[in-house]
Design goal:
Blueprint: H1 12-44, H2 48-63, H3 70-81, H4 83-90, H5 99-126, H6 140-145, H7 150-186, H8 188-195, H9 198-205
Helix pairs in contact: 2-7, 3-4, 3-5, 4-5, 5-7, 7-8, 7-9
C-alpha cells in the first residue's frame, strides 16, 4: 500500500541504520558538550593543586620551630635589663608605662621582617642545584628537616634564619645599652646634653641590622 501511495517502504534494515546514525550523532553531541563543560568545571573548583599547596604550607608551618613573639622576648628583656633600664630603652624615660607595649610592637615588626627575609633566603637555597655540595652532601630537605620532606624543611629553615636574625639584633642592642650606661655613668650632664634621652643613645649606638 505504501508503494501505491508513492512512499518508500521502510524495512527492518533501514530502521537499524537510522538508529545507529541517531546514536552516533548523540555520542558526538555528548562528547562535545563534555569538552566544553570541562574548563567551566575546573574554574568552579580551583582543583586539587591549590588544596595540596595549602596542605603543604600548613605542614611547613606546623613543622617549624616556634619563633618567640614580641611579648615573650620583652618579658625576658625587662628581667635582664632591669625594669628601669628597660623602660628607658624602649620608652621615653624610666617611668614610661608604655615601654612594654612599645617593645612588643617593635619586636613583632622585627619578627615579620626577619621571616620575610628568611623565606627569601630559604627559597634561594631550596632552588640551589649545588646546595648539597656545600652542605656535606645533604639536600636542602635533609639539612633542615632531617628527612626528604621538603615542606617541613622549608618551615624549619625560615624559623632558624629568622630567629638568628632577631637574636643578633637583640645582642647588638644589649651591647648598645651597656655602652650607654657606661657613658651616662661617666658624665651624666654631658650624656643628657648629647643624647637627650637614654633611648636615643641606644638607637644611635645600635648598628643597622
Amino acid at each position: 500500500m505504501l508503494a501505491a501511495l508513492g512512499e518508500d517502504p521502510v524495512g527492518p534494515g533501514d530502521e537499524t541504520e537510522e538508529m545507529e546514525e541517531n546514536l552516533t550523532r548523540k555520542l558526538i553531541i555528548l562528547t562535545a558538550a563534555a569538552l566544553l563543560l570541562a574548563p567551566a568545571a575546573m574554574a568552579a573548583d580551583p582543583g586539587k593543586g591549590k588544596a595540596k599547596s595549602a596542605e603543604k604550607a600548613a605542614a611547613a608551618q606546623a613543622a617549624a620551630p616556634a619563633l618567640p613573639n614580641g611579648a615573650q622576648r620583652c618579658v625576658a628583656l625587662r628581667t635582664s635589663l632591669t625594669p628601669a633600664v628597660f623602660a628607658s630603652t624602649y620608652g621615653a624615660n624610666e617611668s614610661d608605662k608604655n615601654a612594654f607595649g612599645k617593645c612588643v610592637a617593635q619586636l613583632n615588626r622585627a619578627n615579620v621582617s626577619a621571616k620575610a627575609g628568611a623565606a627569601s633566603a630559604c627559597r634561594a637555597e631550596q632552588g640551589d642545584a649545588n646546595f648539597a655540595a656545600s652542605h656535606d652532601g645533604k639536600t636542602f630537605a635533609q639539612h633542615y628537616g632531617g628527612s626528604d620532606d621538603a615542606s617541613k624543611a622549608f618551615g624549619k629553615c625560615v624559623s632558624q634564619k629568622a630567629k638568628a636574625k632577631v637574636d643578633a639584633s637583640l645582642r647588638a642592642k644589649a651591647k648598645a645599652v651597656k655602652a650607654c650606661l657606661a657613658e651616662r655613668r661617666a658624665n651624666a650632664e654631658a650624656f643628657k646634653a648629647e643624647h637627650k634621652t637614654f633611648g636615643r643613645c641606644v638607637t644611635a649606638e645600635t648598628p643597622p641590622s
